[in-house]
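Dear support,

I submitted the protein below through the web form. The confirmation email said the job was done, but the results page showed an empty box. After a refresh the structure appeared. I'm attaching both so you can tell me whether what I see now is the final result or a partial one.
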Amino acid sequence: ENFPIGIDYDRFHDMYDNPEVVRKRETLLNDSIGKKILFSVDRLDYSQGLVHRLNGFEEFLTTYPEWRGKIVFYMVVVPSRDSILQYQDLKHELEETIGRINGKFGDFTWSPIVYLYRSLNFAELIAGYTSADIALITPIRDGMNLVAKEFVASRKDKKGVLILSEKAGAATELNGALLINAFDKTATSSAIYQALIMSENEQTDRMH
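What the results page shows now:
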């Protein structure tokens, strides 16, 4: 039989009010005043569609220039197998793409993408989830994807929008997400825009 893997819901849900999380969330929000926050966290792996995700964000900035300077993408990539040549190549391609997008759209006061190549501790992770207006979780193939479930579980405030690849196993369970084809940069761009203009009532309904 099939037994879908899950997470410790209460552990993520209850951390919303943890003092360390509150402090880190406030710092992140203060650093991003006047901007919407797009957030993702993944291990370094081909299956996670990292470069495809960046291409979708670039398409968004191209298609909706009115959002330039009003959104920041916090992209966290957790080191994984980086001693293997192919993964070193993936990291290089990823960082080259980030540099190109920041150079193309950024200026002295705004970088579209803030990139971290390291692990986060639990409080940092929850602060990232609970600060985000949008979680962009777009693997090109994934048996489940627990990050998507963690994001939803952490949102005690019932706010935020999950954009999720239809190729993630979690997509069959998290039907309140905006589902996309991770290979389709136009669909990714449109989903980001839809999430940004979504009413709080709809956010709450979907998150619930």
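Response: this is the final, complete result; the empty box was a page-load delay. The two ends are 28 Å apart (CA to CA).
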